[in-house]
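I had to read the description of the data format several times before I understood it. In essence, backbone conformation is discretised, so a fold becomes a row of integers matching the chain in length. I therefore recommend that a typical entry be quoted early in the introduction. For illustration, here is how one protein appears when written out as sequence plus structure tokens.

***
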Amino acid sequence: MPPPTRHPVAELRDRFLQRLRESSTSREPRGLYEPISYIMGIGGKRVRPLLALIAARMFGDDEELTAGMPVALAVETFHNFTLLHDDIMDASPLRRGNPTVHEKWDVNTAILSGDLMLIQAYAHLCGAPDKRRTHDLLCTFNRIATGVCEGQQFDVDFELRSHVTIEEYLDMIELKTAVLLGGALEMGALSAGAGREDADHLYAFGRLTGLAFQLHDDLLDTFGDGKQTGKLTGNDIIRNKKTFLYIKTLESLDETQRGELVEWFSHSPEDPAPKVARVTELMRLRDIPRLVAELRDQFQKEAYAHLAAVNGDAAWKDALRQLTEELLSRDN
């Protein structure tokens, strides 16, 4: 079925947000449910539910999104659950420009409300209309959720290590970020009756696209315009994060400059401006922004090869490609 006259992704986003508002609850105890409504309602790009809905439409889901909506709600609930707990682990005061749940309420509330969000994600999947697909959806979700948790632990471990390889970093961001994008597409397709081969191609497309997204985010964090990104430029450098940019720079410098970079990343000066300026200078010296952009583009080229192999509706495949291009060309 062809997309509606209106921009198809905008239509899906509006329908999802409407359903999200309808699913919001003010049940008792309020101290458990209000934090969930809060974190789910403070924005975000809603990329993961959109991917699930596009994949479902690609394989014949109706205009009411009967098959894909439970998956979309599940992946968005799970994603926000991980953010809620990540904010506790990182002691982050803000999320999307608003106080984090553990700051607005307290840590115990954030832990318990997050636990319930994980349960709600499973409940959404169990609400998928085609019960023949429930087993596949739950098994896929378990695989994806396990990967996300593994990726988070690798990220934590890397903070304590003096050396991280490029391969280890790519494995980490694949688990922490990319597998959920792939899983949203895979589950969306399965919910609408897609075969395993097509679902696998969509998963691969999402996984590779997720790697490209993360590399683009790394570039924006270090070299983006803070007025455009809404974030502090160089925040990864200030926090001594071992991103792809740092690892690639470290392996390309001579011994003296390598020692200087390691020294910069061994402490957090009260005024971070000289640190950010010098580290970015070292990165530019070794042409790191170009190298990262080339790898990003290579991942996306491989992703599009998988999308081309999918036997789904061509119009919705085009919509997915257009959404991807918009996200990869963003400056915030």
Summary: The chain has one domain: 8-328. Residues 8-328 form a domain with the Farnesyl Diphosphate Synthase fold (CATH 1.10.600.10). The chain has a mean pLDDT of 93. The first strand starts at residue 94 and ends at 95.
